[in-house]
Amino acid sequence: MTDINAYEGAPEAEFRDFVALLKPRVMSLVVFTAFVGLWVAPADVHPFIAFCSVLFIALGGGASGALNMWYDADIDAVMRRTQNRPIPAGRIEGGSALALGVILAGFSVMMLGLAANWFAAGFLAFTIFFYAVVYTIWLKRWTPQNIVIGGAAGAFPPMIGWACATGGISLESLLMFALIFFWTPPHFWALALFMKSDYHEAKVPMLTVTHGRPATRRHIFAYTLVLAPFAVWLGLTPVGGPVYLAASIVLNALFIHGGWQILRRTEDAAIADGYAVEKRVFKLSLNYLFLHFVALLVQNWVGAW
């Protein structure tokens, strides 16, 4: 494949463009949830091993992002919010992104195995495969359930962190997985409600495109109801407690209320105020997940104290 940067006048790649390939915003969520999973696990982990484990999980997440951007370059070139990404903007050639993703994937898995254990390393390898192949190559362009099933990839990091500490899986790590897994659809569908034209033009079968906005609103509300019991249940396990439970109950009440507001909205009302409610619930969803994992950390510190 010809290097796009070889053409006269083409923009040259900068270091920040290669960082952008790793999807740093997504990586920050991977790092944080993996760290929490490792930190609250019932095992003593040397600080250096913990640091290396989270670092290599982050690099694995970055590898997934690079592979995703390589394969989705055609979609990114159409969607307004992704047109300035390094590949569609012509700053990085697709083959370079593919090579970076493959190298980082192999390096991160091998180093995590050496730093922590090979069960966690195998789990990381499966997660990279799931995001890059199952979600990006298969589900994303094939089914409106892409976000539902593909959301598992983003839900694995706390389980990997837990596995780094314990070498296995437990109810607590499964509930952390469920928290992210059932949060993902209402989070992304709220975004899709006010970004539908992007997905439509890129021919991505998002629920808003295949089933319409009214059906999407019903699905958002339904998933907030399904999510709440799993989120609260985590507070009843050994990693939970009163601090986490109080935070979870409040956050789930707010998220369900937001889903109810979205459900009751008509499209005319949404257009009239520029999808203000949908945008507010989308922002709430970001805080929802972050604060749940912060509450786990605080609960752990309170319990230790």
Automatic annotation (TrEMBL):
Residues annotated as transmembrane: 26-42, 48-71, 92-112, 118-139, 146-169, 175-194, 220-237, 243-263, 284-302
UniProtKB keywords: Cell membrane, Heme biosynthesis, Membrane, Transferase, Transmembrane, Transmembrane helix
Biochemical pathway: Porphyrin-containing compound metabolism; heme O biosynthesis; heme O from protoheme: step 1/1
InterPro entries from the UniProt entry: Protohaem_IX_farnesylTrfase, UbiA_prenyltransferase, UbiA_prenylTrfase_CS, UbiA_sf
CDD domains named among the record's database cross-references: PT_UbiA_Cox10
EC number: 2.5.1.141
EC class: transferase
Membrane topology: Multi-pass membrane protein
Reactions catalysed: heme b + (2E,6E)-farnesyl diphosphate + H2O = Fe(II)-heme o + diphosphate
Main location as per UniProt: membrane
Family matches, as Pfam families: UbiA
Highest taxon listed in the record's lineage: Bacteria
GO molecular function: protoheme IX farnesyltransferase activity
Compartments where found: Cell membrane
Stated role: Converts heme B (protoheme IX) to heme O by substitution of the vinyl group on carbon 2 of heme B porphyrin ring with a hydroxyethyl farnesyl side group.
Family stated for the protein in its record: Belongs to the UbiA prenyltransferase family. Protoheme IX farnesyltransferase subfamily.
Note: Carbon 2 of the heme B porphyrin ring is defined according to the Fischer nomenclature.
Complexes and interactors: Interacts with CtaA.
Protein's recorded name: Protoheme IX farnesyltransferase
Organism: Paracoccus angustae
Lineage: Bacteria, Pseudomonadati, Pseudomonadota, Alphaproteobacteria, Rhodobacterales
Gene name as annotated: cyoE
